[in-house]
Amino acid sequence: PAAARAVDVVKTYGRGEAAVRALDSASVTIPSGRFTAVMGPSGSGKSTLVHALAGLDHIDSGRILLGNTDLTTLSERERTLLRRERLGFVFQAFNLVPALTAAENIALPLTLAGRRPDPAWRAELVDMLGLGGRLEHRPAQLSGGQQQRVAIGRALVARPDLVFADEPTGNLDSRSGAAVLAFLRDATRSLGQTIVMVTHDPVAAAYADQVVFLSDGRVVDELAAPTAESVL
Ligand code: ADP
Ligand code: ADP
Known about the structure:
Protein name: Putative ABC transport system ATP-binding protein
GO molecular function, one term: transmembrane transporter activity
Structural class: alpha/beta
Shape: globular
Keywords: ATP-binding, Nucleotide-binding, Transport
Strand content: 25-35%
Radius of gyration: 17 Å
Number of helices: 8
Strand order of the largest sheet: 6-7-8-3-9-10
Helix content: 25-40%
Number of strands: 10
Domain ABC transporter: 4-232
Order of helices and strands: EEEHEEHEHHHEHEHEEH
Bound molecules: adenosine-5'-diphosphate
Organism: Pedococcus cremeus
């Protein structure tokens, strides 16, 4: 089953002479419970595609389906609610709340929604994150790799339908990056989490179950079971 689909999506920035067609009839299927990497040169439309899938941007034409919901038929307010309730986000810059502990940062989406974490789910997530005795530490007391694992915990804690990770290893050394990528892969394997990651790093893409290649605003190739060599 598809967690999300983009169908013939066209997105243009600006008007007239200055118009840039960032997506030119782009179509992609994000399979449920799998780890998908989106690759392509700078300016090929990766961020625009992911923003469209997440309902963050208005598109010119085409359809964006999240499960059975067509995001293009929703109001701005409905899309905001849907993002809050059904999507998770991980950023290159971690974006943790400095005053909160690791445990409080992870629980934040639930706290804001007035929900309590499912104890078994939380225990499994915390165990997988490998943060050991660091849950009561604040972000400044954690390494970059640990901060990103906290941010991923936060993105997953409310059990979203889909998690978007935009260059999640862009600020990490290769060893910390490998731990983050292994965690993302394990989150699909053992928790059934659907993840979409934007990256330009073939080593990172090799952790994914499938890689989608963009060029000039179009999906030009898809590769299952990628390796770093086959992605290059
Ligand atoms: P990528 O993520 O692959 O680097 P983007 O989706 O950011 O690509 O950009 C695709 C194209 O759209 C590029 O030509 C870029 O310059 C253009 N673009 C992106 N965002 C904007 C914007 N806000 N205004 C104008 N042009 C933009
Ligand atoms: P990791 O591979 O987990 O990212 P590092 O090799 O970067 O870890 O760091 C080793 C240890 O040093 C970590 O357990 C972390 O808690 C600690 N550490 C790293 N950076 C900082 C920092 N800026 N402030 C406090 N402790 C840090």
